[in-house]
Amino acid sequence: MKHMTEEELIAYRDGETRGREGFGSHLKECADCRREMERIEAVFAALDAMPVPDPGEDFGRRVWQQIAPRLPERPAPWWRSFFAPHRLVAAAAMAAVVVLAFFIGRYTKKIAPADDLVGNGKTRERVLVVAVGDHLGRSEMILVELANAEPEKGRKFVNISSEQKRAKDLLEENRLYRQTALREGDTLMASTLDELERVLLDIANSPNEVTPSQFEAIQKRIAEKGILLKVRVVHQDLQEREKTATPSPTQKDSQKNERNKA
Amino acid sequence: MRASIERAESVGISDAQAVESTLAGDRDAYRVLVERYSQYLYRLAYRMTGNSHDAEEIVQEAFLRAYQKLSQFAGNSHFGTWVYRITTNYAIDRIRQRNVEEARQAPSARPSEDGVQADAMALVKDPSASPERLASSAELATKMKQALDSLTPAERTAIVMRHWEGCAIEEIAAVLKSNSNATKNTVFRAVSKLRKALEPFVGLGGTARAIGTES
Q1: Alpha-carbon distance A131 to B141, whole Å?
Q2: pTM, full prediction
Q3: What's the Cα-to-Cα distance from A130 to each of A127, A134, A135, A174, rounded to whole Å?
Q4: What is the ipTM of this complex?
């Protein structure tokens, strides 16, 4: 019987897959090769036992004290803060709301006179309803994807980078809508957005790749807070409000007739 | 390696936030990263060099280099993984530099690719080094240190990253600027040399058979 070479034994121990089955059966049958493997194992066991001195709990602090005076100042370029990702997202969200408001304004002007204060209030509400509805829809999609995902068995890491990026993009928008809802006195909306913000923050701050147990923890957090259900309820409510805020063609005609009579 | 990095990152603000704040001019944000990864990098540097003083200096230098290059850091990888690679590269430079200095001071003790084998065999042939005598862990630790010091910088990096840090062959190949097959060979050479140097002292006595032969 031909014995395994040292290279084959070390590669087998290291998890090499090529020819693994054949080497495995050989090891079962060959006492000599098993003894060789035990000798290799004993060397690794000795290496494992090699002590590493403890640098002390305050080692990190000491390293900082040593290097801090040598770190050059890094003045932030004045324009940098304007291009920070969260500001760009906020700016994009604001721009979207303004553009939406402009077009809705143009459209509704044809229906109602511009000086109709009640009408203006309704328009504002409709803009908010449409924008927040869209935001909740996108948030719901991320939560559903994460809540329903099942990590592949045997995989050491689950990649959530796509959900993480989308959660980051939604965060700033969420903050804006929450503040608006608070100002408008819509407490149900504000509290739902507040809870949503915490979950989005959790997802956004997770590593790109998480272990299955970390992934389960994220799913558990989503389930525990019942956030998905709350988001759905508020989203549906907004959709209802959107429908009622949009006058039907017959309503429009009667409004027009009344205006004409007047 | 990744597990340790994730454990480190799970406390307090995320690495990405700390990096962003540092780049925005908040130098103290960098402290979070230094305190988070120092212990972890120290263990790596110590195993690479076998010397506390060198390990401390390597950790400091790695953080200084990382700070200087922070704007080049691609946010799509972990800060921990990135600084780990900087530490490994600097440790390799440091070991090479130390070898050159030692060679200059004592040309006869200069380690070389083949010299490693000679050094390892010298350990085996030491008549005073019977297994009983070497039972004391302090002596075994000395023998292990000698055996590790006798490896080339690439072999030492490979065995530290593979055995202690559990890195994938591809990760080690990236640090060694090599390919996967060559890296596997480097790991094998390191294990083989350590085995020759340490086997007489770690139990399971008896003469090893001529492996790869037929019985």
Answers
A1: 67
A2: 0.53
A3: 5, 6, 9, 14
A4: 0.76
